């Protein structure tokens, strides 16, 4: 079985930022280097903005989306959205993207 994984990266602080698209890397070492060179950005947790950015920009043909492959987001979070909180349920509902959450602090609850 052949498996191809495309990866995009969005950071969410006060504003969500697209660091790279699904089609920017084909070499694992270059991808690892790119991830390691992303500077830490302090701020809030804008989960809504990150999901919106993924839905409107990452999962688009210009960013490398493949229409025949299901869209999946692995959301690594501290569990506490702090910006655009009221809009989060709506953003999750209108998206056809599967979201897999990974909590990274003891603030995450089921």
What is the structure about, briefly put?
The protein has 110 residues and is an alpha+beta fold. The chain has helices spanning 28-36, 47-58, 88-94; strands at residues 9-12, 16-20, 72-77, 98-103. 25% of the residues lie in helices and 19% in strands.
Walkthrough of the structure:
There is one protein chain. The chain has 3 helices and 4 strands. By secondary structure, the protein is of the alpha+beta class. Helix 2 (47-58) runs parallel beside helix 3 (88-94).
Provide the descriptors you would attach to this structure in a database record.
3 helices; two-stranded parallel sheet; Rossmann fold; 110 residues; alpha+beta; globular
Fold blueprint:
Layout: E1 9-12, E2 16-20, H1 28-36, H2 47-58, E3 72-77, H3 88-94, E4 98-103
Parallel strand pairs: 3-4
Antiparallel strand pairs: 1-2
Helix pairs in contact: 2-3
Sequence of secondary-structure elements:
EEHHEHE
Gyration radius, rounded? 14 Å
CATH superfamily: von Willebrand factor, type A domain
β-strand amount: 15-25%
The end-to-end span amounts to 34 Å
The CATH architecture name reads: 3-Layer(aba) Sandwich
Oligomer: single chain
Major β-sheet annotation: 2 strands, antiparallel
**Domains, number:** 1
The level of helicity is 25-40%
CATH topology: Rossmann fold
**Integer average pLDDT:** 81
Tally of DSSP helical segments: 3
pLDDT < 50 runs, ≥5 residues: none
Could you name the CATH class?
Alpha Beta
Please give the number of β-strands.
4
| Lateral arrangement of strands in the main beta sheet | 1-2
Structural class: alpha+beta
Shape: globular
């Amino acid at each position: 079985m052949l498996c191809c994984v495309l990866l995009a990266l969005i950071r969410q602080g006060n504003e969500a930022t697209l660091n790279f698209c699904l089609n920017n890397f084909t070499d694992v070492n270059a991808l690892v280097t790119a991830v390691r060179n992303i500077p830490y950005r302090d701020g809030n947790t804008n989960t809504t903005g990150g999901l919106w950015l993924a839905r409107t920009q990452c999962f688009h043909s210009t960013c490398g989306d493949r229409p025949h492959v299901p869209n999946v987001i692995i959301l690594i979070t501290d569990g506490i959205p702090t910006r655009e909180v009221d809009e989060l349920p709506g953003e999750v509902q209108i998206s056809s993207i599967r979201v897999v959450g990974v909590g990274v602090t003891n603030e995450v609850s089921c």
